[in-house]
Amino acid sequence: MTITWTAFSGATSYNIYFSTTTVVTLANGTKITGTTNPYTQTGLTNGTTYYYVVTTVNGTGESTASTQVNAIPSGSGGVDDISMLTPYVNSSDIATIHEAFSSTSSCPWGFQHNGIDFAPTGNYKPFQAVASGTVDTVSLWQNDKSSNWQVNVTIKVNSTYSSVAYAFESFSANQADGNTQLANILVSVGQIVAQGDVIGNLFTANSSAHVHFGLLQNSIAICPETYFTVSAKDSVLGVIHKDNPTWNMCY
């Protein structure tokens, strides 16, 4: 859904506050910072009323809120509506990618892999929501193959079938390390997150720790490459090619 408003002379950017409950205010609305006019918001639920106010940002600070408006999205809600940021906040926080996406074993790592594994340069590196949506899952789970503890976070980004999934894998069989990772997840089930919100920091119990990121359509993992913004795609490929210059993002 595209949001437009009357431009203000001298504005450097705009903040949008939205909610599914009237009246939306700067105190209770979900904040989207640094937007430009017009702004396209994804991850909304078709048939739900959303309420909006806009503020102007310039060198003196943030203005008071505009008059409230509301809108009801009614688009197709398909995965093609997604335009994703990188899962990581800073590319400098990512040391390497262990494996990328593969629907076949004909890939450099030799097995099917339903996402991309981002290994950090150090402890407690932040990861962000690639798209706006509602947190569907936050769960501490012991992997039945590796016996390691991980925290799974999923964000539903539209009403039809699309989710983004993160597995914060500290790579430890010690449940205390799993609890430490859970304590470093910054979102909760049912929370609405805006694109770019930090959802958690990765606790690294050892050098194999990583965040596994995937995009799901009808609960089936798909190649995320074409759904990244141009700059995000370039960034992810840049991280891949640091150590593996011949790798693709998807196979």
Descriptive account of the structure:
- The protein is mainly beta.
- It folds into two domains: 2-75, Immunoglobulin-like, CATH 2.60.40; 81-243, Glucose Permease (Domain IIA) (Distorted Sandwich), CATH 2.70.70.
- Helix content is 9%, strand content 35%.
- It has two helices and 17 strands.
- The strands form four sheets. Strands 8, 9, 11, 12, 13, 14, 16 and 17 form an eight-stranded antiparallel sheet that branches. Strands 2, 3, 5, 6 and 7 form a five-stranded antiparallel sheet that branches.
- Strand 16 (210-217) and strand 17 (220-222) form a beta hairpin.
- The longest helix is centred in the C-terminal third of the chain and has 14 residues, at 230-243.
- The protein is globular, with a radius of gyration of 19 Å.
Describe the structure in brief.
The chain contains 2 helices and 17 strands. The chain is mostly beta strands and 251 residues long.
- Percentage of residues in strands: 35-45%
Count of individual domains: 2
What's the CATH topology name of the largest domain? Answer: Glucose Permease (Domain IIA)
CATH homology superfamily name of the largest domain = Glucose Permease (Domain IIA)
Shape: globular
Span from first to last CA? 32 Å
| Helicity range | under 10%
Give the H and E element order: EEEEEEEEEEEEEHEEEEH
Uncertain parts: 76-80
Write down the Rg: 19 Å
Question: Which CATH class of the largest domain applies here?
Answer: Mainly Beta
What profile does the largest beta sheet have? 8 strands, antiparallel
Structural class: mainly beta
Do you know the CATH architecture of the largest domain?
A: Distorted Sandwich
The total beta strand count reads 17
Mean pLDDT: 90
Number of helices: 2
